[in-house]
């Protein structure tokens, strides 16, 4: 195998791993993996078999879908946290949840996706567990992700939305046109907000953590059952989100010129 072919195989394996990670614990069908990655079934099967041998992927016995294997967990224990100051960031998110009494999500951008890096729950007894901790989903399929898109250069945001377009229906209730409209509005307002966008009956307000280079990689959202976030409460949540975003930017150094 020459270097070019070997590098291409590694790239394909990485793309498959990200696609498998999107499926979470319930796994992903081979058909969907091929559709998402553009790989032929024989090529995808060959790479997945190698990943299974390494323990990085498993095939679930009950439905034959593919999910991440325990080897990924073992590797993750040795990997550095992409947010070096994560304990302080986590405490800041917890404080926001305590002050709002609602659920707060911290999302980290990863290629065309966002990953739920932390979820803090406030004291209100009805807790909307919309996104499980560690779940990977398209950037455009969460309120925090929409805020990230709005904070990116328009050309970057448009490319990401187009990449996410085939997968939206699986992860949220928004059409592609809804996403475009919400991102445009979030760019104008400085925050994203919407009812029933991801799950029916849930409203959320999202905001990106500012970055001096203009390409933020962190965003958060406050989420609750819809009657908890009427229009008149949004300005107060925006104020709290902005204060928290600035605090996280200070902690991580995102707002420092490079």
TrEMBL record:
UniProt GO MF annotations: DNA binding; DNA-binding transcription factor activity
PROSITE patterns: HTH_ICLR, ICLR_ED
Pfam families: HTH_IclR (PF09339), IclR_C (PF01614)
Keywords carried by this UniProt record: DNA-binding, Transcription, Transcription regulation
InterPro entries: GAF-like_dom_sf, HTH_MetabolicPath_Reg, Tscrpt_reg_IclR_C, Tscrpt_reg_IclR_N, WH-like_DNA-bd_sf, WH_DNA-bd_sf
Domain IclR-ED residues, every copy: 71-254
SUPFAM superfamilies referenced in this protein's UniProt entry, alphabetically: GAF domain-like (SSF55781), Winged helix' DNA-binding domain (SSF46785)
Gene3D superfamilies documented for this protein: 3.30.450.40, Winged helix-like DNA-binding domain superfamily/Winged helix DNA-binding domain (1.10.10.10)
Swiss-Prot/TrEMBL GO biological process terms: negative regulation of DNA-templated transcription
Entry-linked SMART domains: HTH_ICLR (SM00346)
Domain of life: Bacteria
Chain ranges of the HTH iclR-type domain: 7-70
Name of the protein in its database record: IclR family transcriptional regulator
Organism (species): Rhodoferax koreensis
């Amino acid at each position: 195998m020459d270097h070019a072919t070997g590098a291409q195989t590694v790239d394909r394996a990485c793309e498959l791993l990200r696609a498998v990670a999107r499926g979470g614990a319930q796994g992903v069908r081979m058909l969907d993996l091929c559709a998402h990655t553009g790989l032929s079934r024989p090529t995808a099967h060959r790479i997945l078999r190698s990943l299974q041998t390494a323990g990085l992927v498993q095939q679930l016995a009950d439905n034959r879908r593919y999910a991440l294997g325990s080897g990924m967990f073992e590797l993750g224990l040795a990997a550095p946290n992409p947010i070096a100051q994560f304990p302080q960031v986590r405490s800041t998110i917890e404080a926001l949840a305590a002050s709002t009494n609602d659920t707060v999500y911290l999302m980290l951008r990863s290629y065309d996706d966002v990953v739920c890096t932390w979820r803090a729950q406030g004291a209100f007894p009805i807790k909307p567990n919309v996104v499980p901790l560690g779940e990977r989903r398209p950037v455009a399929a969460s309120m925090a992700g929409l805020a990230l898109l709005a904070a990116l250069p328009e050309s970057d945001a448009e490319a990401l939305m187009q990449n996410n377009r085939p997968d939206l229906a699986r992860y949220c209730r928004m059409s592609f046109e809804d996403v475009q409209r919400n991102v445009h509005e979030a760019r104008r307002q400085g925050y994203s907000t919407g009812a029933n966008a991801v799950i029916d009956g849930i409203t959320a307000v999202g905001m990106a953590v500012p970055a001096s280079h203009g390409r933020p990689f962190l965003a958060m959202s406050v989420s609750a059952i819809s009657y908890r976030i009427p229009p008149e409460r949004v300005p107060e949540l925006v104020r709290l989100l902005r204060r928290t975003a600035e605090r996280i930017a200070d902690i991580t150094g995102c707002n420092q010129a490079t």
